[in-house]
Amino acid sequence: MQVYAYTDEVIDRLNAYALSIPPSPTPSYHLLHPEVHVPPGCLPIKTIQFFRCDPLARHPKEYHWAIFVPTSPISGIGHYYEVSGGSPLYRVRSIINDYSAWRGLERGSHTVGYVLPTMMPNLEAHFALVPVEILKRSWNSQNWVCNALQGLNHPHMFAIGMTLEDLVTQMAIVSAAWEAGNAK
């Protein structure tokens, strides 16, 4: 994964956006883990899931997960960090300040942390160091997201500590709320 070059202009724009974010309302659906309070001036870190379907098998696969940091008031615009490809060809991919490759297939998200805009290069460097397990059949994007969130415990770059099982349970709640029309 190549780390994006953050110019002073980009940081200023991210800071301005972060300062414009109003407090998040509490979602109306049940949460196993309440959403993280994002301090003023910080950007939220979200776990987001996407629906996938294997066109040959004609049945849904597990949800694809990515980490999403919104960078614009336009819904869906931000930085996405994910594992793409398939075993044994997984690779970490970042989509910077754009829509995701899975646009329109979102099935909800959950705020799990926050980052100060000036810490974005550090966040990306952290994600670039998260290993990709290519020889383990059960390993997928969900494992990578959980591993990538571990260790984010800096005062300006934080994610709540959730196990993979906790995240799977929480994202199932988010998915059910999405399907019922109660989530964004």
Strand order of the largest sheet: 6-5-4-1-7-9-8
Instruction: Calculate the terminal CA-CA distance, rounded to whole Å.
Output: 29 Å
SSE sequence, one letter per element: HEEEEEEEHHEEH
In total, the number of domains comes to 1
Largest sheet: 7 strands, antiparallel
Shape: globular
What's the alpha carbon Rg, rounded to whole Å?
A: 16 Å
> What is the overall number of helices?
4
Helix fraction bin: 25-40%
In terms of DSSP E residues, the strand content is 25-35%
Low-pLDDT sequence parts: none
- Content-based structural category: alpha+beta
What integer is the average pLDDT? 82
Count of beta strands: 9
Question: Can you describe what's shown?
Answer:
The protein is an alpha+beta fold. It is built from four helices and nine strands; from the N terminus they run H-E-E-E-E-E-E-E-H-H-E-E-H. A hairpin with a 4-residue loop joins strand 2 and strand 3. The radius of gyration is 16 Å and the shape is globular. The chain starts with 7 loop residues before the first helix and ends in a 5-residue tail after the last helix.
Supply database-style keywords:
184 residues, alpha+beta, seven-stranded antiparallel β-sheet, two-stranded antiparallel sheet, 4 helices, globular
Produce a short descriptive summary.
This protein has one domain (8-179). The mean pLDDT is 82. Helices cover 26% and strands 27% of the residues.
